[in-house]
Amino acid sequence: MAYSQGRALWAITKASFKAIFSQPSSIFFSLLFPIVFILIFGAFSDKPADPFKIGIAPGSDTASVFYDSLLANPLVKVARFSDTASMYGEMRKGKLAAVMNIVTSKDSSTATKVVLQSSEAGGGAVYRLIRSLDYQALKIELADANLKREYQFIPEIVPGKKYRSIDFVLPGQLGFSVLFATLFGIAFVFFNLREQLVLKRIYASPVKKINILIGIGASRLFYQLLNVIVLILVGHFFLNFTLVHGAVTFFEMLLLSVYMLFLLMGVGLIISSLAKNDTMIPLMINVFGFPQILLSGTFFPIDVFPQWMQRLCELLPLTQFNNAMRKISFDGLHLYDCWREIGFLTIWVVVIYAIVIKIMKWE
User: Fold this and answer.
1) What is the pLDDT of residue 196?
2) Who's near 85: CB < 8 A, 6+ residues apart?
3) What is the mean pLDDT of the chain?
4) Which of 105, 122, 322, 334 is 20 to 30 A off residue 49, Cα-Cα?
5) Angle, nearest 10°, between helix axes 317-326 and 280-295?
C-alpha cells in the first residue's frame, strides 16, 4: 500500500490544531485580550468634547447679560462650590479650565472686564475658552448695537458615513491579534518540536518536508482566522463596525488576513531557527513586534509623527495591513484597489521566505 502524503498532512494539521486548544493562554491573548481592547478604545472616544468647566469668583457680577449668556452656552459648564478654597483647589489641579471674575463698571463707557484665572495644570485650556467667550461677547455687542451681521453661517448636513472610533480601532486590533498570536504560536511550536526531536523524527519519515510546514502552518492559520472572524462579527453587530459592502467586505478582510498570516508565519519560522533557547523567543518577538504596534497606526494614526518618521512607519508590514484593512472596511475599496499596500506586503513575503529557506533548521 502506497504511503499517503494527504493523510499524513491531515494528521499533522489535526494534531497541531488540537494542541492549540490545550493552551488556554493562547485563546486569551489572541481573542479575549483584543476584544477587551476593542471595547475600551471603541467606547470612550465617540462622545462629543466635554464643555469647559469653570468656577465663578466671589464678588463676580452674576446679574450681567454676559453671565446669563454664559449659563446658556453649551460649550461652558458653570460649576458650583460650597466654599472658595475647594474651587481654587480644583483650579490648581487642572480640573477647572478657569475661575472667572466678571467686573462690570458703573460707567457705561468702560468695557466689562472678564478676568480668567487658570493653572498650568489646565494644559492651556483657558486660551481655547477665551476664543469661545470672545465669540459669545461679540454676539452680545452686535445685539446691543442692533447691527446686522454681514455674514451668516448656515450648516447643511448631507448624508454620509459616520466615522466612529471603532472603525479605526478594530482593524488595528486585528493586526495586534494576528501579529503576536501568530509569532508566539509558530515560534514556540517549531522551537519545541525541534528541541524535542519531533521534527527530526517526522523529517526521517516518508512525510514530505513541505507537508510538515503546511500542516502546522495551516492549523495556526485556521485558528487565527477564526479569531479574526469573531473579532469582526463582534465589532459589527455589537459596536457598529462599518462593513461597507457587507459580506463582500467581510470576505475581502479575511483574504487580506490570510495573506498577513502567511507573512507572519515566515517571521515565526525565522525566530524559531535563530533562537538558541526558549527564553530568547519572547525577546526576539518583542523586538520585531512592539515597534510595529507603536508605529503602525494600531492605537493612534501615524499622522501624529513627524514627516520623516511617517516614511519609516510606512515601511512596516503592519502599517500596510492596517491601512488596507481600513480602506476595505470603511472606504469601500476592494483588494485590487489596495495594490500599493499588498505590493509592500508581497516584498516582505519574498524577503522573509528567502531567509526562511536559508536558515530553517530541522534539528
Assistant:
1) 73
2) none
3) 83
4) 322
5) 50
Measured in degrees and rounded to the nearest 5, phi and psi for residue 98 equal -170, 160
Residue 249 is given by DSSP the state H
In 3D space, the residue among 26, 3, 363 whose CA is nearest the CA of residue 211 turns out to be 3
Listed by start position, the domains of the chain span 5-45+164-359, 52-145
Q: Is the pLDDT of residue 337 over 90?
A: yes
* Cell numbers placing 307: 514627516
Type of residue numbered 185: G
The SS3 call for residue 51 is: coil
Given a contact cutoff of 8 angstroms between Cβ atoms, the answer to whether 136 and 70 are in contact is yes
Q: How far apart are CA 363 and CA 350, in angstroms?
A: 24
- Residue 78 CB partners (closer than 8 Å, separation 6+): 54, 55, 56, 70, 71
Lowest mean pLDDT among 1-15, 33-47, 304-318: 33-47
Residue 239 has a pLDDT of: 82
CA angle 348, 354, 357 (to 5 degrees): 140
**CA dihedral (165, 166, 168, 174) positive or negative:** positive
| Separation CA 192–CA 279 (nearest Å) | 12
Cell numbers for 128: 481655547
